[in-house]
Amino acid sequence: MGNTTKTYYRMELNKYSKTITQDVTQPAAQAMLYAIGFKEEDFDKAQVGIVSMGWDGNPCNMHLNDLATVVRENINNTKDLLGLRFYTIGVSDGISMGTDGMRYSLVSRDLIADSIETNAGAQYYDAIIAIPGCDKNMPGSIIAMGRLNRPSIMLYGGTIAPGHYKGEDLNIVSAFEALGQKIAGNLSEADFKGIIKSACPGAGACGGMYTANTMASAIEALGMSLPNSSSNPALSAEKQQECQAVGAAIKILLEKDIKPRDIMTREAFENAITVVMVLGGSTNAVLHLIAMAKSVDVPLTQDDFQTISDKIPVLADFKPSGKYLMEDLHQHGGVPAVMKYLLSKGLLHGDCLTVTGKTVAENLADAPDLDFEQQKIIMPLETPLKATGHLQVLYGNLAEGGSVAKISGKEGERFEGPARVFDGEKHLIEGLSSGKVKHGDVVVIRNIGPKGAPGMPEMLKPTGAIIGAGLGKSVALITDGRFSGGTHGFVVGHITPEAHEGGLIAFVKDNDIIEIDAINNTLNLKVDEATIAERKANWQQPALKATKGILFKYARHVTSAANGCVTDEA
Ligand SMILES: CC[C@H](C)C(=O)C(=O)O
Ligand SMILES: [Mg+2]
User: Fold this and answer.
1) pLDDT bucket at 6, cuts 50 / 70 / 90
2) Which residues belong to any copy of the Dihydroxy-acid/6-phosphogluconate dehydratase N-terminal domain (predicted)?
3) Which CATH architecture has domain 45-161+202-365?
4) pLDDT by residue (tens digit) across 102-142?
5) DSSP alpha helix (H) spans, 200-318
6) Is 93 annotated as a binding residue?
7) Mutate to test the pocket of ligand 1, among 95, 159, 173, 211 (most ligand atoms within 8 A of CB)
8) CA of 357 to the centre of ligand 1 (A)
């Protein structure tokens, strides 16, 4: 085992794997390691588990296994480190959306967390590098890192390039909205097909400020990925360089024993929320960041989002409600340029530690400056797109435990209208085609909460169709489900308690008046108390829709949206 100094040094790096590699009472384990090609010197190395969420069936994930191979090479070329790849699952929201398959989407976040925890925990990896693509992959990876609390880096698979059709830039949401345009009679069959064929040109996660790019940006701001990880496109040279940089970075984390709990502090989460607000990110950030914070026991609630939303403006003109894609920001300095600007204005905590082993401020010292003449993606604080955050937490009789609204400001901030109730999203498309949904309506989609669906699916098919049908400014939508980052319009999700738990949303009837007020942050059903009491009188909790398998287990364990939908709380 060499001299004592050397052994002591190596024991520090292989704090976990030494249980397998150094213990003389573990000969069978060591025999297994010889079988996978270990040389004598490898037994002294720190083992880095490299987990890829790569799979063939999704553009966001199709290239991740290739990235993992490059990462492994880099790790193995780093003195004292040995990389071992493993793989976990994913769900493509873009493909599952609008189907029952989407019930598995949020479930996959926790399955990813559980599977990474399981593999790394059982095999005693000293460090973790996770390579996620589609949106739930990222919080799933971070939750596992938080639970394991071993040196960890997330390397985001990167954003997709824009598609092109008839001179227009396209992205996945163009395909969702094309359905509504077709229903409204504004799109020919040929153009419908043309958009579908051209929307997504190849590998990479959905290109706008949808949930994948939102979570990647939030996690970079949190300090858990290398600078630029969130804006380096999937197929860029910079993404390859990032793969070549993780070995040196993870070695520093191992040497200095910098762990997720040292990085993911309360201040770091505030940085992440600030960046989500500035970028106009997805509502999913609320439940994912709450769940990620729980993995390291940092208290974080929906109300913290409101506090930050009250003081942080939206500066970015990204899709879905704006013009630009993440790849555009990459051309102008990426997320570090945005963070550098925010730091210079005192809006970020600069002293938070990151996976470079340095602080946020140190990382940003050499980042490019945003040029407000050259680019119109990020506006200066003096001329924001919206003076306060777009994510608003509303309470009221319809949401006693809170709800999350996405208010771009373009649709106004107050809405009152008659309810048009749908149990699940399936009949909404019919409702649009038959004219059941009219200007001024508040569409209610219920019984799709974390327990009720189960799995709290995203409602991009209905919201995309509403926008495509030209009703985006005149119809509001509330739900106990959630939204994809591609959703825009006047929308409120995460309604807690959900219908399945007897929340008032379960008792709404067609034509009841609903008031949404994102100035005073209220969401109320304007029906008198006596009528509400009458409707509630004989209510019994419905049986779970799933009776076995993962959806059953999930429905049994999942907590409310306000609690991050975590599945590991008593
Ligand atoms: C286009 C939206 C994407 C498919 C998604 O799931 C999200 O952003 O949440
Ligand atoms: Mg999604």
Assistant:
1) very low
2) 45-363
3) 3-Layer(aba) Sandwich (3.40)
4) 999 999 999 999 999 999 999 999 999 999 999 999 999 99
5) 211-222, 237-256, 260-263, 266-279, 284-295, 302-311
6) yes
7) 211
8) 32
Residue 255 annotated as part of some ligand binding site: no
Q: Does the beta carbon of 161 lie inside 6 Å of ligand 1?
A: no
pLDDT score of 12 more than 90: no
Percent of the chain with pLDDT over 70: 98
- Residues contacting residue 524 through CB under 8 Å, at least 6 positions apart: 396, 397, 398, 514, 515
The arithmetic mean of pLDDT across residues 302-331, rounded, is: 97
Selection from 177, 99, 106, 100 nearest residue 140 by Cα: 106
Q: 505 C-alpha to center of ligand 2: Å?
A: 23
Is 408 a pocket residue for ligand 1 (Cβ < 6 Å)? no
CA distance 206 to 175: 12
Atom of ligand 1 minimally distant from the CA of 176? 1
Which ligand 1 atom is at minimum distance from the Cα of 320? 1
What DSSP designation does 213 have? H
Q: Give domain limits for the chain.
A: 45-161+202-365, 162-201, 391-563
203-251 tens-digit pLDDT: 999 999 999 999 999 999 999 999 999 999 999 999 999 999 999 999 9
Residue 60 labeled ligand binder: yes
Q: Give the predicted TM-score (pTM) of the model.
A: 0.97
Q: Which CATH superfamily is domain 391-563 in?
A: IlvD/EDD C-terminal domain-like (3.50.30.80)
> What letter does residue 476 receive in the DSSP assignment?
E
By annotation, the residues acting in catalysis are 484
Of 223, 254, 241, residue with least CA distance to 363: 223
Q: What is the Å distance from ligand 2's center to 173 Cα?
A: 12
